[in-house]
Fold:
Amino acid sequence: MRRIFKKFTWSQFIIASILLLLSFSVLIPILNLLAMSFSDPLKVHKLSGLGILPQGFSFINYEVLFSNPLIVRSIFNSLFLTICGTALNLFLTALAAYVLAKTNFVGKKFVILFLIVIMVFEPGLIPEYLLVKDLGLLNSYWSLLLYKAINIFYLFILMRFFEDVPDSILEAARIDGAGHFRIFTRIMLPLSKPGLATLGLFYGVYHWNEYFRATIYLTDPNKWPLQVVLRQFVVERDNTTLLGAQNVLSYDQVQALDFGSLQAGTIIISIVPLLIFYPFILKYYAKGALEGGVKD
Amino acid sequence: MTEKGIFQRIKKDWVIYLMLFPAILYFSIFHVIPIIGMKLAFQDYRIIGDNIWVGMKHFEVLLSSPAFMDVLKNTVIISSMKMIFFFPIPIILSLMINELRNGPFRKYIQSVVYLPHFLSWVVIAGVWISLLSPVDGGVNVIRNFFQLPSLDFMTSKDHIRWVLVFSEMWRSAGWDSIIYLAAIMKFSPALYEAARIDGATTFQQMRFITLPQLMNTVVVVFILNLGFFMNAGFDQVFNLINDSTISKIDILDTYVYRIGILNGQYAYATAASLFKGVIGVILILSTHFVSKRLTGKGVW
Structure:
């Protein structure tokens, strides 16, 4: 025991303590919401703002949330947008990345210059909104799937991953008579799984967290993803939507509900998928972000 | 190469062009058309028929409007506050994390401090509104423990900008430290070995070995941030703003959203965002060349 302690200097002990406190400052607010969401609505007022253990224990908040059609639908909407959006992003980005990283063609330099130029010019919100409107995509999921279908930063990152695949393998396939599309699907994609996983996480996190375009493009609440519904509850303080639960609960139960706990439950639901993927995010995301030199 | 050679190559490589086609089509529609669409800043919007050219009218209105000046002021103040008070935090954090040995504790700290980066600003707004609640929010629990009265931070004009700075720290300090940590990992261990033999303390090693070598990365990141100075954090403000604090934290991007999307003044809002865009491009281009001159590393 003594020897282990001897290895640490005082300053290291102080640094470790500060970092431990910082980690608590991140975790406690989230755990507090978790505790709130599982507390008995009648006892939740006893939960301190720093408490991490539920007061009493009850699933009532989640029962109410999961019996609210708007929330259940929004969860499925979010899953649909995240899965389809990411798949579309990956396909389009990988296709372009293969061509730009591994082939030579007339006009390649021009295409790269074109990408850099449009990366620098941000047209801003209004021209984009009017374009979506003119294309007739308002209130359609295509507006969310097509907007940022290819992120240029991410395209450049994937190109670097693709460049790591040795040319000799592609050359061998070409000699065997494989065309570009065949090389792309049979060799490039299987050999670039870490790169694709990295990009899949980039795009997936983006789609799951997307709320702003959905707020302005989707006017029908039935199409809203979870983040928009969550925003409606916690930012806009819209209680009425939540009490659509009246038909599954008795009047007394509705009276006893705690709005803050219901909000907390909604926040927790929207974090869970990220936590499930968090080990993969830690493994691929950070490395990819550094490799691309992007800060986002 | 002869003319004929080029055409033959294009013809031979038709599959390549076919594979590139979806991307080019996408970029042409969703990037080029909106960029051309910015000409709306010099027009009046018409629902039926063609827009009318009005020259610099919107910019003249904009620059003489006190509301726009307030928004511009807020943007500069909030960005500056973040530059001064947030920017050093990830650097300090990376120095501290670097002192931890590889092992479960270091892994735990890193996993926790990176986490908030992956939460949306909607979620973070939810967490912070609860954390700062005047009734039983965590921060006020601590204040009450020290005999201080509860404060309603979210509606306080004096505190809301600090809420922006601190919530930015909560979200990004950990994640932003990664880039510094990656740089530190590449420093030669021999220097630290020599310093230890000479009896340098942990703090002295940080101050005289790590920090000087890290300055190159610090300069690059600082310059990159400068390029996005006019942004000030749209998603953050959009989710933390309310009627009582709008005069203090309404920034250019939230202003464009409000007058453009909510009020339907498309042309005027486009002028406002073009104004911001031009300053942004000037900043990015100048930072790119300054950075290239100073460190040999550009923005792209």
Summary: The mean pLDDT of chain A is 89. The radius of gyration of chain A is 25 Å.
